[in-house]
Amino acid sequence: MALETPGHGPNGGKRAQETLSNLLQETRRFDPPADLAAAANVTESAYDEAKRDQLAFWDRAAERLSWSKRWDTTLSWNPPFAKWFVGGQLNVAYNCVDRHVEAGNGDKVAYHWEGEPEGDSRTITYADLQREVSKAANALIELGVRKGDRVAIYLPMIPELPVSMLACARIGAVHSVVFGGFSASALKSRIDDADAKVVITADGGFRRNAPSALKPTVDEAVAECPGVERVVVVRRTAQDVAWTDKDVWWHDLVERQSDQHKPEPHDAEDPLYILYTSGTTGKPKGILHTGGGYLTQTAWTHHAVFDLKTESDIYWCTADIGWVTGHSYIVYGPLANGATSVIYEGTPDTPHRGRFWEIVQKYKISILYTAPTAIRTFMKWGDDIPAKFDMSSLRVLGSVGEPINPEAYVWYREHIGGSRCPVVDTWWQTETGAIMISPLPGVTAAKPGAAMRPLPGITADVVDDQGNSVPDGGGGFLVVRDPWPAMLRTIWGDDQRYIDTYWSRFPGMYFPGDGAKRDEDGDLWLLGRVDDVMLVSGHNISTTEVESALVSHPKVAEAAVVGATDPVTGQAIVSFVILRGNVAESEDIAAELRGHVAKTLGPIAKPRQILVVPELPKTRSGKIMRRLLRDVAENRSLGDVTTLTDSSVMNLISEKLPTAKSED
Ligand code: 6R9
Questions:
Q1: Domain containing 593 — which CATH number?
Q2: How does strand 314-317 pair with strand 285-290?
Q3: Nearest protein Cα to ligand 1, atom 23
Q4: Is 235 inside any structural domain?
Q5: Any bridge partners for residue 579, and if so which?
Q6: What is the atom index within ligand 1 of the atom nearest the CA of 512?
Q7: In terms of DSSP H, where are the helices of 69-228?
Q8: 556: annotated binding-site residue?
């Protein structure tokens, strides 16, 4: 059966002789620690319960929340439009804040906030959060914000960010958080698309030891957004700011408000937030999430996947709240569960490369959730850095954002987790709202690099290009068969694009755009975006497998591979690698690595070229941008680089290219 990559990928339209190749063999297994398994929040029986009655399973998950009115119907499914917990009413902010205070946990810490400048920290209890969110809700009401209105939030990682989100949720306004690194034009297009009437921002934030301004960007964007009535500005850096009549200081507006606010119930299907996802190209899509189903699944997965013990765990997710990982696993899931979390404002190398581990040691973090891009960077910096800190408090480690290479997984397990913590590789998307495929730390004998099984209540599958399930050992397209509570409801203002993007490739199935394989045991491995798949001599080869083979070489910290047009093989594999910190670039490194890939995956996957580079192009959320590397590999002028974190990286890489030779 041939695999045809949909969309605008390099292979669009071409047909191969096989489904996605399954080249990487991995035999290592890590059983759950016995003590963790014995006391685990969720056990094997959850899979059976969900299989027996999926909707009853989600009913029970929803019952973990406090509802003002119970739902009449668990799911109303008018494909591809889903409504969950229909007729139910709840207040999301009440669930995340007030109910914990009412239960007598007002003094429990909700957030330990750690600013980038050392010594700059704040402790926020659930009672503090209740007062702050109430004041901010009253402030929004004073500004004329009503239920259903949209509020854009453009803030650094400071406590006012979750407070603003919860204040919106409390009054039924819809927040649209825009990552603080985005430009004025990106901010403007997001404000416009959602028709936001208020923007919440700050003078600036601290990044790499320096104040970095935000307000000028907002001024530039708002000048072209006549629909914006007011701009609320948090004073964080005390930088000078220009001022307009729309502007009001947070401390002038919010501080004088009453700290009492009565949360009204909202329908389970009332919009909670919009979050824009750009994909790799094209107009950003406003992913719409609603309250009841989203909170049900984020809270349940946070409890299950991280085995959260509310009383004793200190949990830290290192993502930025501007991305979905921060929305679901810094704000909504952990707060709904009454967790104590850490929020860190800054970067991992400020003021030194051990900052993360210093934070783990300081707060005695027990659950850490981070991204492969960070893990590979730590590998590059060297094992000796984490070794200097006491990280014996850690008990569960998580990964999200990209496929985690087996070697990075094993490094994370050993050097961060002291070989005693299970690592959960969690697959999900902005669109899915919550974790979908992941090991359970007290149940799963995990394989390094595999997301393993769909969580209870989720029906994921791997299909060929006709939409038929592939057998064990086969590769193809990941799909989700049944609706799930936290799924996106639509693309804001564009139902047709929602249908076309996610539900048209395989009728009746949700298509996330990722390739995957199911191994001989039936476990799932994510193989990267299907647009990145390489077609080499009639074989569909995933970027992930070749990258993982490269990272499994002791000299390599990080790798990105792309398919470049080749007169003989159709496409040839071009690799970009970053060496580990203590390794010098030698003459024969390319030959050595090519040989290593051929030995690990077979000769078909041997790269034509290997380039040692200092950095790789990444999106602002840390994902490798292979599209730009393809431009370089095919000697094209670079496409759109505006979503790159650091565009100078591409010059460094291009300079390398003329010297790189193919060895065959
Ligand atoms: C949560 C988040 C979604 C895309 C997704 C996939 C990739 C995320 C992954 C993973 C392999 C994992 N992805 N987690 N790939 N293994 N554990 O990252 O959301 O920013 O929308 O990105 O990220 O390609 O489709 P988002």
A1: 3.30.300.30
A2: unpaired
A3: 401
A4: no
A5: 556
A6: 25
A7: 92-93, 99-100, 126-142, 160-171, 184-194, 215-222
A8: yes
The amino acid present at 549, given as its one-letter code, is: A
The DSSP 8-state label assigned to residue 531 in this structure reads G
Nearest residue to 477 via CA among 540, 430, 429: 540
- The mean pLDDT value for 242-261 works out to 98
The CA distance from 304 to 31, in Å, is 17
Q: What number of residues does the chain have?
A: 664
The residue range of the domain holding 629 is 533-659
Is 133 annotated to bind a ligand? Reply is no
- pLDDT at position 640 is 63
- Closest ligand 1 atom to residue 328 Cα is 1
The answer to whether 165 touches 96, Cβ cutoff 8 Å, is no
Contact 298, 336 (CB under 8 A): yes
Q: Is residue 560 part of a domain?
A: yes
CA of 402 to the centre of ligand 1 (A): 5
Point out the ligand 1 atom lying closest to the alpha carbon of residue 438: 17
The model's pTM is 0.94
588-618 tens-digit pLDDT: 999 999 999 999 999 999 999 999 999 999 9
Rounded-to-integer distance, Cα 621 and Cα 655, Å: 25
Distance CA 426, CA 46 (A): 18
Residue of higher predicted confidence among 317 and 278: 317
- Number of compact structural domains in the chain: 1
Residue 168, both tokens:
């919106």
341 domain-assigned: no
196, 214, 191, 195: which is closest to 204 by C-alpha? 214
Q: How far apart are CA 581 and CA 556, in angstroms?
A: 9
Contact 61, 49 (CB under 8 A): no
Evaluate whether 394 touches 365 at the Cβ level (below 8 Å): yes
For residue 331, with 0-12 CB atoms within 10 Å meaning exposed, 13-18 middle and 19 or more buried, which class applies? buried
Examine residue 610 and state whether it is found in any structural domain, yes or no: yes
Could you tell me which residues are beta bridge partners of residue 515? 477
Distance (Å) of CA 518 to CA 32, 265, 455, 471, 476: 21, 43, 15, 8, 9
Q: What are the phi and psi torsion angles at 504 (to 5°)? A: -100, -30
* CA atoms of 524 and 472, how far apart (whole Å): 10
Give mean pLDDT, residues 82-93: 98
Please give the Cα distance from 473 to 9 (Å, whole number). Answer: 25
Q: Which residues of 419-457 are buried (b: 16+ CB within 10 A; e: fewer)?
A: eebbbbbbbbebbbbbbbbbbbbbbbebbbbbbbbbbbb
pLDDT digits (tens, 9 = 90+) for 55-86: 999 999 999 999 999 999 999 999 999 999 99
Measured CA distances, 253 to 136, 162, 234 (Å): 9, 17, 10
User: Exposed, middle or buried, 587 (CB in 10 Å: 0-12/13-18/19+)?
Assistant: exposed
Ligand 1 pocket list (CB less than 6 A)? 277, 323-325, 400-403, 425-430, 451, 512-514, 526, 529, 621
Q: Are 442 and 43 in contact (CB under 8 A)?
A: yes
Helices (H), 583-647: 589-601, 626-633
